[in-house]
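Input record, target 12 of the design panel.
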């Protein structure tokens, strides 16, 4: 069997929410439309539920992807995003995030410390500055000026893991070792418009100053309202070297389905690089609400929410 789907209904809350929320959606979109829809990397049911709840309030995909990304950012048990994220090899938690809306607006932050919600800072960069990307100290200054709170994001658990790692001190990315990696979220809003977001603490115990794909528009996230959107997770260096999300959207523009486009973007990596020791997963959605996913290795999964029902689905992959 080429693809195995593991479906898990979320809590009774989700089912109840679906019943309560349906009438609003029915007013705002055609009964046959394949949107609104939320899709995110890995097993992120709570993020999707928050995104879905946001869609009930404003209907806007941009609000939904931000709301979804904020969930793992605030979760101390999530060791690869925001608060609780594993630090770099010098013990600093440094965060990367980006966001893009249906109009082609984009914002991002890189190498940001001490702020729980980099995705909201990225949105503020997009909406309140003439720039796309702010980095490091400048991003922190901007965040504080915008009213974001300065916090210690290094949890005791993350600090302990870092101190353990320091004993061996091997800088070696591993495949799927964490509960999940970077979250990328895509949504079609109630008008069918597309937005995307991505947020991460990056590679665990990375070099100080290392920035991955997650804050780079075109690498971790790309949206074009004529076509759809794509997002990435995994070892960012290879997403950066192939600009995977932009590539997927362009492939869809030229007629590929979301699934075909994700597969072709993975093949660009497989053909050029020694892919056997790392993981990349791509997700894509087109304007009809069709989605696709593909990864290099076994183990990538993603979360889909449609009509208030959330499912975790195992992605197909290249390395059988
Ligand atoms: N994809 C996350 C990172 O490489 O930083």
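The sequence produced for target 12 reads:
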């Amino acid at each position: 069997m080429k693809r195995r789907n593991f479906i898990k209904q979320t809590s009774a809350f989700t089912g109840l929410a679906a019943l309560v929320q349906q009438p609003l959606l029915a007013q705002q979109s055609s009964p046959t439309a394949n949107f609104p829809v939320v899709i995110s990397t890995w097993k992120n049911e709570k993020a999707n539920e928050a995104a879905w709840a946001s869609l009930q309030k404003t209907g806007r995909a941009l609000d939904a992807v931000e709301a979804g990304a904020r969930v793992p950012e605030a979760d101390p048990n999530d060791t690869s995003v925001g608060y609780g994220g594993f630090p770099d090899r010098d013990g600093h938690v440094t965060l990367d995030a980006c966001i893009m809306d249906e109009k082609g607006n984009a914002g991002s932050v890189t190498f940001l410390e001490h702020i729980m919600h980099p995705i909201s800072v990225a949105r503020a960069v997009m909406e309140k500055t003439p720039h796309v990307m702010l980095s490091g100290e400048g991003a922190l200054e901007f965040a504080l000026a915008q009213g974001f709170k300065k916090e210690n994001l290094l949890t005791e658990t993350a600090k302990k893991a870092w101190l353990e790692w320091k004993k061996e001190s091997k800088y070696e990315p591993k495949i799927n070792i964490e509960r999940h990696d970077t979250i990328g979220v895509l949504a079609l809003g109630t008008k069918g418009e597309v937005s995307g977001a991505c947020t991460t603490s990056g590679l665990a115990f990375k070099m100080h100053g290392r920035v991955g794909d997650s804050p780079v528009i075109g690498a971790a996230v790309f949206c074009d309202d004529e076509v759809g959107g794509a997002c990435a997770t995994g070892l960012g260096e290879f997403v950066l070297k192939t600009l995977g999300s932009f590539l997927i959207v362009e492939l869809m523009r030229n007629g590929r389905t979301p699934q075909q486009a994700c597969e072709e973007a993975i093949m660009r990596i497989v053909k050029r690089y020694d892919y056997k020791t790392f993981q990349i997963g791509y997700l894509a959605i087109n304007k009809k609400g069709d989605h696709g996913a593909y990864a290099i290795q076994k183990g990538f999964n993603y979360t889909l929410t449609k009509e208030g029902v959330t499912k975790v689905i195992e992605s197909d992959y290249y390395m059988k």
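The pocket of glycine is lined by residues 182, 200, 202-203, 212-214, 233-236 (CB under 6 Å).
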